[in-house]
Every structure is written in structure tokens, then in C-alpha cells.
Specification:
alpha/beta; disordered C terminus; 39% helix; 6-stranded mixed beta sheet; 7-stranded mixed beta sheet
Chain lengths: 460, 460
């Protein structure tokens, strides 16, 4: 069980989704013998039209992991940069807010196209084999054995040096671990679900909205977002309560739907004339946060959503899984004594960051659907911009730390909370209306200087 | 699915443990056709010597449910009353604290003997049949069907009007519900485990300690308890951290065990001379809290530990399951329209009480292992006793509400929290040392009168 890691080791990965396939590529490139078992059929032969696949917003951490696999350039070709948010109010008026500095953007990518690319790349590697419609049924953690079954139900015993479960939020490996003693587990669905809409191209055959932005219709208790696709469509997603006054449960007939959209999304109605039909045809889907501990059990490891599924509001779900892959490779470079030691070490090192991104993602839903439209929030963002531009401190906005740096999520969250306190203190310390840009800047710096004595530990 | 409840309905119960068997009896007495499927062999033919079965402390709510089944008297014959706690300090000195008023006691009962009695009673009913070694494998919630398999793996399809999962903390029905959309689930192991010891009879062949008490050796971060058995033994349980300075992990060799017991449990060592051997032979077991929501899915219901497993420190684990049974019968008396309506109603009505007893049980561990030995705690108990005896208010001590009344756990917890604040305020408002009993009483009443203006809402 504790034998040293050797380059001839066999590693079995469960799940040929985005994270599992990338991990397979990274491990295969180091010479290990890789088998990936995926319970579904090959995605490339049969595109699932589940209509339940919030678009990906790829950002820094994601690119770094793709670069490690040598795939950054290929993926960039299928990506549309979104350097900022475009906020739509109930009058249909748009406001643009850059995400970061010039050149900083998140990228809209099709989840299934990226998965197909990764599968193609993976299958080009001689020491990597993918088995589709191969469902894992049972694990023997003590024996380093798993049992998989094919579509006919024929069971096969697999021995390997290590097993990694990247089989998603409903991971079979995790369900087995859950029955082991002292395994902490929690699945928590939020009160909102989501429903997808397609925004078709406009009359000129091009995008009906500015493609270089993530569009948000924030409505306090709910919101719509839209991300561009390369075929000139957008994928829009309505995040909406399951129950209550305005909810999937209450809004069902065409009149109710029309009334909701004309009150809340008048500009959206115009570019999506079949919104009533889409509302009816597309399913409501739920959103879950999954926390568990530990992720490792002897030579078995959970990774990505299988270990830490988060809500999609920070665009870090898959990306945190991609980052898991990179960090696992870095740990592997430190010559761990055995797979079980590597997995235990990876878990202890990484779990606080998974907890942090789960919280950040829940918080960002409130920011996106509510705060983003509030004058106080916008004022604080403007104050923050001045602080950053003045370069007066080692200050990085929270969104930037999460999206455009590699800082551990837990550190980003800690610093973000500290910075939020300071921003609120500065905002509340004065009246900011009717100031010129120059006066505003001067006042921020002045306040900042007096604040130095009141800043929490860790911010200098 | 929504057909009315009829007395000829068939109800299938999973689990022939304490709760499932009692529920079977109660439902069978109302004329329903009952099948109980239990995955283990018949307990009565083969006593499981798992050594992992904290004794039962039966109290009011438990007796009420047993009375409903006409079994109160029979069970009382196998029960030993424990009217108070006996606290052992590190010098081996004992102090006795009554649990309630005269005549109020909790009762030590053997879990397996009680289960055997219930199984015998159940099998005497003509419309109740128990199938042992019948393991449920799959559920079809939509079709009101379950699939069970016998020891040979032969699968059988069972149709019924209702299905109730009383299959314990690791409920198979709950694992299936967990895969349904929007099911909340959490399993949380505490950092302490437990290990059982047997205290053999003394030289005179009788109990080595006073049998009319629940013995506690509180040691702040851990504790030992002991409950009497009718065969003149006691079952003792060490609740001890799994990890850390003093823990199951650290204390392993005979010297370490001896040193622990001579420092902490000198009087226990004397009456359990083979404590080192028992420490080695008896397993460490873990303690879990399980919360989930909802407990119902169409004609399927979770009950007892399957719905809400709690840690054992309030002695309310099985008892809350017994109370579930009684409350379900009361709901059934209200002529619900269908089983699914009954189950939905039962869940909405009962879940806050399950949450409350889970918290109360966790809190009571701290009380038992730590507070109980603190002078402040003992002083507050004495103040509380004066308040109760003076009858100045509608005041019932928390332990009494939980143990000797039927108040919903959630209400008991709320009132208990409010009362705790008042007790602390009274204690902190004065110096209580060197007062005679009469002076003490007078001062409590005086403080109580001034407190009237500061009491939280809900206490008058």
C-alpha cells in the first residue's frame, strides 16, 4: 500500500469530464499508465442536449492549468474575452464595469467543446486509455481495487496503484467513502434554481448584445446572466427562486411569464422573442454546495466537484478543479513517498481553499444579483479603484485575487473580508456626492491615510 | 398515489430495530397489514456482541410511546431507576445530584433485551410479519415500490401503500433519497469516540457502585459514564477524543493506559481490575449527528435515526424515535387524506424538534464532561432549584423539560436558553458564598424579583 511512486504506476481516473480528462493528460505526460472510466457514452459522438450547462467563464487559474498541459493556445481559439460586466437595469439601460486592469478578462468557452478538445488530446497519448460506458460499482479501499461494469452489467475487477475520483458532484467514489467511518459530508441546495435561454443572433447575423462582456440583469432576489458563444448566440441563465412570490413554482402560465419579463427584463424580451416557449421547454435545475472530509482514503482521492462542488456564481467551479490538478502535479514534484502520502498531503493543503471558494461563490451570488446594482456598492468599487491606482498599499480587489491571480482562495477570502471592512469605513466616513474626479481621488487618499491606524491586521 | 388511507392498507417498514418494531406494533394494532424487513439475522437467535451499544436511559417520552403500545409495565420490569447523577472526582469522591423532583427518574434498560421484547410482541400480532436477512436494495418512489433481496441475493419486488424507513443512522432509504434533487443532507462526526467497559459485580455479588444513579467521571475534555444492568454489572462508556494529547490514538500501550486511569479514574480502576485488557479488546466507535430534509418523499417516510441521528448525551436518541412513532399515530388520528399527506405533514411538524434535540445532545456533552464539575454550574443549579421550589414562575429546568415532559424539543431548547441567561445574570449579580440555606433562598427570591424587568421575552 505504501510502496514508492514509480513512473510505471497505473492510475485509474473515474470521470472523463473536464477535470478528469485534464488530470489524465497531465499524469500521462509524466509517464504513468492512465485509465479513465466514464459512465456515460462518448460526448463526442452524441452531444447531450441537456440544456443544463451554465457556460464556462475561464480565468487565470484555468489558463495556468491548461498551459501546464500545453493547451492554452488551442483553447484560446475557442474563447471569447469578457473584460467586464454589462449591467442591465429594468429600463433596459446598460452600464459597463471593467473586471480588472486593461487586458484582464475572463473568457466565455463552451463546456462541451472544451471537453471534446480535452478528450481528443487525451486519446492522442499512447499511455492513456478512456473507457466509456464503464460504470464504477464498488471500491475496496484496503485492497487498492475497484469494480466497474459495462453497459451489459458485466463486472470487471481493476487493480491500480492509485485511483482518482473526478466523477463530479454526485461522485460514486464519494458515496462509497461516505459509508466509511468518520467521513464528514454535507450537500446543501440553495433556494434558487436556474433555467437556460438561448439569445439568437440579431438581424445582422451577429451577436444581439456586446459579446465582450458578461451581461447581468440584477434584480435583488434573482438575476439573469448571459455569456457569448462563438456562433453569435448567447447562453443566458435565469437564476430564480424555486418557491415564493416570484418563483419557478408561481410563474408558470404565459401571462405570468410575460408579466415577469416585461417588468424585469424588457430589453431581454426584445432580443429573445420566443422567451415564453423557452421558459416552458427548458428545465429548472438546482444548485448544490457539497463539502466533505477527508478527500483521501489510502490510494484513493477525490478531486474537483467530487470533493467540493460549489455554486457557479464566481465562475470557479471547474476552474478550482483544474487548479486541483495543477497543485497535485506540484505536490508530485516534491517526490512524495507514496500515493497515499501524496493524497493525504494534497487534501490537508487544499481543503481550506475549497471551503473558501464555496463561501465566496455563495457570497458572489448576492453581489451579482443585488449589490452590483446598489449605489453604495458602486461607490465602494470607485473608492477601491482609486486606492489600487494610487498604489498606496498591497491592495488587490477580491474579484481580482480570485479571478486574475493564483493566491490561495482562503487567503483571497481573508484579505477580501479585511478590505471590505476598510472600504465600508471609508465610504461611511464622508459624503461623496458632487465631487469632481480629482476631488474624489484626493479625498480617498486623505481618508486612506487616516485609516492606516484602523486597518485590520494583515493589511499594511 | 394520493388514494385515501384505508385500514386494509399494507405498510412496509425497513429495520426491525427498536423504533421500527415499535412502529410496526402501533400500526398493526390499528389494523394495517405490516411487513418489517430487517437486513440482519434475528437478534433473538444470535446476540450481537458488538460491544458498541451505549445503554439506554429510558425517560418520560419513551414510556409514553411504550404505554401507547401497552408495553410500559413489561418494560419497567427490566428497568433500573436512576433518579440522579453520581459525580466521581479524581480523588474517587462521589457527589449525588437528583435529576428532578422526588420520584422522577430515568431508567437503565438493555437495548438488546428491549429489542427482543418488542420483536416477540410484534410477532404475536396476526397482521404483522417480520422478514429477517431481507435487505432493501432499491426504491421507486414514484411507483410506491421497493426491491429487497434475501441472503442468496434473490430479488423481490414489494408494492405497498406506504413505506417507512426506520433503518437507522445509515439508512438505505435515506441514501436513495439523497440522490433525489434538492435533498439536504449532512453527516457530522464529533471529535470524540467511545469505548465500552464492563464493571463486574463486587465481592458480594452485587453492584460495585450504587445502582440507582447514572455515574459520571467528568474530566473536562472527556468523560466516563456508567449505567447499571440487572445482572449486577454496569456498562461503562469512556467518551474520549480520537486525536490529541489524551486520545485513543495516543493512549495505546499498557503503561499509558495505566497512567491515564490512575490519574483520572482511580476509583474505577479498583472496581475494574481488567481495565487494560478491556481497553485493548473493546473497539473505539464514532459518534455522528445526521440531519436531512425532507424526510418524506411521496409514500415514503424516514423516521428515528434514519431521519435524525443524534449523539447520545441527552439519552434521547432512541426516545426521539419512539416519540416520532407516537406523534405519527396522533397525526394519523386526524384523518389525513393520504399517506403522502400524512408524511409531509409529519415532517413539517416534527423537523424543528429533531434539529433541537441534535443541538441539545451536543450541548449536553459539554455539560456532562465539563460543566457538571464546575462550581458556577453547581451554583446555578442550586439557584434554579430555589426558583422552582418557590414556584415563582412557569419555570421548568431544561433537563426536566427534555426528560420528564412532552414539551416539543424545540420549545424546551428555546426556554432553556432563555432560562440559562437569567440564571447566569442572577449568579453574577451577587456573591453567594458563606450564606445559610435560608439566606441563600431569600437572596435568590430577591434577585428574581429585580430580574423580572430584565427577563427575555417568553419568560414571565
Amino acid at each position: 500500500m505504501k510502496k514508492p511512486i514509480s513512473s510505471s504506476d497505473k492510475i485509474v481516473i473515474f470521470g472523463a469530464g473536464l477535470v478528469g480528462t485534464l488530470l489524465g493528460i497531465l499524469l500521462a505526460k509524466r509517464g504513468f499508465k492512465i485509465e479513465i472510466h466514464e459512465k456515460r457514452p462518448d460526448l463526442r459522438h452524441k452531444i447531450y442536449s441537456s440544456l443544463r450547462s451554465i457556460n464556462l467563464a475561464l480565468s487565470h487559474r484555468g489558463w495556468r492549468s491548461l498551459a501546464l498541459a500545453g493547451l492554452e493556445e488551442k483553447v484560446k481559439e475557442m474563447a471569447i474575452p469578457m473584460p467586464g460586466r454589462v449591467i442591465h437595469d429594468t429600463q433596459g439601460i446598460e452600464k459597463y464595469f471593467a473586471y480588472g486592469k486593461d487586458g484582464q478578462a475572463i473568457y466565455s468557452v463552451s463546456r462541451s467543446r472544451l471537453n471534446c478538445l480535452l478528450l481528443d488530446e487525451a486519446e492522442n497519448l499512447p499511455n492513456l486509455k478512456i473507457y466509456f460506458e464503464s460504470k464504477v460499482e464498488k471500491f475496496a479501499f484496503d485492497k487498492s481495487v475497484a469494480y466497474v461494469a459495462d453497459v451489459e452489467g458485466l463486472r470487471q475487477r481493476i487493480e491500480a496503484d492509485a485511483f482518482i475520483g473526478s466523477d463530479g458532484a454526485f461522485s460514486a467514489m464519494r458515496y462509497e467513502m461516505m459509508r466509511e467511518d468518520r467521513f464528514y459530508y454535507e450537500q446543501h441546495y440553495i433556494e434558487h434554481g436556474y433555467k437556460e435561454f438561448t439569445i439568437h443572433p440579431g438581424k445582422d447575423g451577429k451577436w444581439a448584445l456586446n459579446p465582450n462582456g458578461l451581461h447581468i440583469w440584477p434584480r435583488k432576489s434573482f438575476m439573469m446572466i448571459a455569456l457569448p458563444n462563438q456562433d453569435f448566440t448567447f447562453t443566458a441563465t435565469l437564476f430564480f427562486p424555486f418557491e415564493g412570490e416570484k418563483s419557478f413554482k408561481k410563474i408558470q402560465n404565459p401571462d405570468q411569464i410575460k408579466s415577469l419579463f416585461s417588468d424585469e427584463f424588457p430589453d431581454f424580451m426584445e432580443i429573445v422573442p420566443d422567451y415564453v416557449q423557452q421558459y416552458h421547454q427548458h428545465p429548472d435545475a438546482s444548485l448544490v454546495t457539497i463539502r466533505c472530509a477527508p478527500w483521501n482514503n489510502k490510494n484513493f482521492l477525490l478531486i474537483g466537484d467530487a470533493a467540493h462542488a460549489v455554486v457557479p456564481f464566481y465562475g470557479q467551479g471547474m476552474i478550482s478543479g483544474f487548479e486541483d490538478c495543477r497543485l497535485l502535479m506540484e505536490k508530485l514534484d516534491n517526490n512524495p513517498k507514496s500515493w497515499s502520502e501524496l493524497f493525504a498531503d494534497f487534501y490537508s493543503f487544499r481543503n481550506k481553499d475549497a471551503d473558501a471558494i464555496a463561501e465566496l461563490a455563495l457570497d458572489n451570488f448576492i453581489e451579482m444579483r443585488d449589490l452590483v446594482a446598489s449605489p453604495d456598492f458602486q461607490l465602494e468599487k470607485r473608492i477601491e479603484k482609486e486606492i489600487v491606482e494610487a498604489g498606496v498599499a498591497d491592495w488587490i480587489p477580491l474579484y481580482t485575487m480570485v479571478t486574475f491571480t493564483d493566491l490561495p482562495y482562503s487567503e483571497a477570502r481573508k484579505r477580501g473580508l479585511e478590505q471590505a471592512i476598510i472600504l465600508r469605513q471609508i465610504r461611511e466616513s464622508s459624503n461623496w456626492s458632487s465631487l469632481s474626479d480629482a476631488e474624489f481621488r484626493l479625498k480617498v487618499l486623505e481618508k486612506w491615510n487616516t485609516m492606516q491606524f484602523r486597518t485590520p491586521e494583515g493589511i499594511s
